[in-house]
Amino acid sequence: TRKVLNVCEKNPIGEHPLNYDESDPFDICAASYALIYHGNPLVNYISAGAVDLPEFKGQLCRVTKET
Question: Is there a smaller number of Cβ atoms within 10 Å at the N or the C end of the chain?
C-alpha cells in the first residue's frame, strides 16, 4: 500500500475529473452520494448529521436506519 501511495504522490494526475464547484459549499446525499449545493432543498437527519435529497423523504435514513 505504501508503494502505491508513494507512486501516486510523486505523479499526481487527474484521471477522473470531478464535476463540482469547489467555491460553493455543499453536502453529500447519504442515499445517492449526489452533491446538494447550499440553498437547495434537502432532508436533514439531525441525530445522524446526515442529509438526503427530497426524493428520499420518508425512507429510512442510511446512517441511523430511522425515518
Answer: N
Indicate whether this model's pTM tops 0.85. no
Which of 38, 34, 35 is CA-nearest to residue 24? 38
d(CA 67, CA 35): 21
30 occurs within a structural domain: yes
Domain count, the chain: 1
Q: Give 26-46 pLDDT, tens digit per residue.
A: 999 999 999 999 999 999 888
Number of neighbouring beta carbons within 10 Å of residue 65: 8
Is 8 a member of any domain?
no
Residue 52 contacts residue 43 (beta carbons within 8 Å): yes
